[in-house]
Design a protein that fits this description.
By secondary structure, the chain is of the alpha/beta class. Helix content is about 25%, strand content about 25%.
């Protein structure tokens, strides 16, 4: 009897395997005929949340997940997608059927172009193409109400995500990755594809879905397992890990910036130096730069240099950038001397205390008048004064800087290169409600790992709600304040 039972069980397994769609390696196979859900299991929890409309799968209604019947290990999947306002969907890969709840195995590739969620203090920032909670991206590469193409490729331990054929995300899974409680199965392996209907206010369409199995490949080594765990912990917490202060210097190209982002998991904002005697000096060169970097999955920032910048560019040109930042390292002192703090021979310190009072006054003037989003290279002093940084930056002086930032809604950069400001000022600024950004301000092609910024997150107790976000067009400082007259004196 035991032998008969074993044979019967084996036949059941073989029969079940025979019922799974077979996908030859290398050949694209359609997953949806535009009319029916043939090839898909019945949707879990609320099957009515999935319907067919105009040759597309419409995901709209109570939480539900539609699972495909085939299983894959190495594969390439693609579809055309359209989201409506408030859309929040996802594509699960390497997952398994569940009768209820969010899938507990595999990864979710986020589909969310603009939805912010119900929380004002912890809004949803993860954009389409994010590997949800593992490698989030924050730049909105595609828009609502427009069909876009998404392609997901998995080979061994590597996930790549493409939007309109541009790679926007990549993740290499370590051998023993860090995972939070309840996410132990967030791993690659044999599994299926599932589409998500998230909630009744969310509507997303999928059409022209297809998949092809890929041959086995070589697993890829993870460069820094410890950094991988740190990044994943921050991503899990919804912490926007973005370096907004990157320059294309030292031979660094935009392609290398993107590759570095996808290797480390750090998002980037790339900014040219814009001002007198800098590479971008007028509207024409500004528009030329925008043309050169558009289409890359990065934020586009503007570094406003010197106090003359407000006279060199039009508001229309400035508003093309996602954000604008400046520092107080270039100014004219009370004797009419143009100081550039980072150049020893172009800075004058006749009296330390007088210099500090003048510098603070200049910071107050700059950030109360100039239409910028972020104060970068903050509190940096001339080289000869940096050893006395903590003594010269008194509590009273820090309070004055924090007040002007608070009054004008300007974020404070935590700078990885200069390691400023120090923790005391960051804590004071946090208490006052100032938002923070991270920045490298590289002078070579090495962007580092934002080490100082990561240390300050922990030491100062920073949360996702403390971090800077790019403002909508109507709220950009250039569109609210306009351009002031040049700051002199």
């Amino acid at each position: 009897m035991r032998s008969v039972s074993n044979c019967f069980l084996m036949l059941l397994v073989l029969f079940a395997a025979a019922c799974q769609p077979s996908v030859p390696v290398g050949e694209w196979q359609p997953m949806f005929d535009g009319k029916t859900f043939d090839g898909w299991k019945k949707a879990a929890e609320h099957p009515e949340s999935f319907t067919v409309e105009d040759n597309a799968i419409k995901c709209s209604g109570e939480r539900s997940h539609l699972f495909y019947k085939g299983n894959f290990t190495n594969f390439e999947w693609e579809a055309e997608v359209k989201t409506l306002e408030k859309a929040n969907s996802g594509v699960y890969i390497s997952t398994k059927y569940q009768a209820e709840g969010y899938p507990e195995s595999g990864y979710e590739i986020q589909i969310n172009n603009s939805h912010r969620g119900p929380s004002k203090t912890h809004p949803e920032r993860r954009k389409t193409g994010s590997i949800n909670g593992i490698r989030n991206i924050y730049y909105p590469f595609v828009q609502d109400n427009e069909w876009f193409k998404i392609r997901i490729k998995v080979v061994e331990n590597v996930i790549e995500v493409f939007l309109n054929d541009v790679k926007v995300n990549e993740y290499t899974q370590p051998e023993n990755p860090w995972r939070w409680e309840g996410a132990e199965k967030y791993l690659l392996g044999e599994g299926t594809i599932a589409l998500q209907s998230h909630d009744p206010e969310s509507t997303t369409y999928y059409r022209n879905l297809r998949i092809r199995a890929l041959p086995e490949g070589e697993p890829k080594e993870v460069e820094d397992v410890q950094l991988d765990a740190i990044v994943t912990k921050l991503m899990r917490a919804g912490f926007p890990l973005v370096d907004y202060h990157v320059h294309l210097k030292g031979g660094l190209t935009i392609e290398e910036v993107v590759a570095n982002s996808q290797r480390l998991g750090i998002n980037y904002g790339v900014a040219p130096n814009c001002g007198l005697h800098f590479p971008v000096t007028d509207d024409a060169s500004l528009y030329q730069y925008i043309e050169e970097v558009k289409g890359s999955p990065t934020f586009k920032g503007m570094q406003a240099e010197g106090r003359e910048w407000v006279t060199l560019f039009s508001p229309e040109a400035i508003s093309k950038f996602d954000y604008v930042f400046t520092d107080a390292m270039t100014f004219t002192d009370r004797k009419g001397r143009r100081n550039r703090i980072w150049i020893p021979e172009e800075v004058w310190v006749d009296d330390k205390q007088q210099f500090m009072d003048d510098l603070v006054a200049k910071i107050e003037a700059i950030f109360s008048q100039e239409p910028v989003d972020i104060y970068v290279n903050p509190t940096v002093l001339p080289a000869q004064l940096m050893p006395e940084y903590d003594q010269l930056w008194t509590k009273e002086r820090m309070e004055k800087v924090i007040k002007v930032l608070t009054d004008n809604g300007i974020a404070l950069e935590i700078n990885a290169r200069y390691k400023t400001p120090h923790a005391e000022m960051i804590k004071m600024a946090k208490e006052a409600g100032v938002k923070f950004s991270f920045g490298t301000n590289n002078v070579t092609s090495d962007l580092g790992h934002l080490q100082y910024c990561l240390e300050m997150i922990e030491e100062c107790g920073l949360t996702p709600g403390d971090m800077f976000e790019v403002k909508p067009d109507a709220q950009k400082p250039i569109n609210v304040k306009g351009l002031p007259a040049q700051i002199t004196g």
